[in-house]
ASCH domain-containing protein
Amino acid sequence: MNFQFQDTAAGIEECLQQLRTQLAQEYPDIPSVARRRFVMAAHLATKVLRREKCTTIRFDKNAVEYPAGSILPLYALEEGQHHGEARCMADLALHGVRYEQVDDLTEDDALADGFNSKEELIDTLESFYGQLAPADVVCIYNFSLIQMGPHRNAHIRHATAEMLSV
């Protein structure tokens, strides 16, 4: 299932309602949950900030997810940190979301997600989520980085500059 965000007169809320309706039809036995932010390992967040990564693939064993809005914050998590300690790095503008079985992921999916191969992508996903079955459904978010601007806190801009200098 593929869903692209459209500019509609009613706005993003109507767009998200359409997506929730499609998810209920496509996956009637699986609950849908809203994603409100992206937390990534610091090395993956750095790839986003360097524009080397324009998708993120997410998995929930008990649900399919959808974005809570058209712009979601990106948080970086250093090794050993708990999710609550993640640093907000930037905002991501979402362009679309796709739902695929793990077995249907492609080399192009891996490259867009900042990996060198499908095998490397799946190994990384399994390091986060545990063993994935070929029929497991993953959610692929397509996004672009929103430039850091004066509206962001100084500590966020500093942390971003610090990560990019690595």
Summary: Residues 153-166 have pLDDT under 50 and may be disordered. The domain at 2-164 is CATH 2.30.130.30 (Archaeosine Trna-guanine Transglycosylase; Chain: A, domain 4).
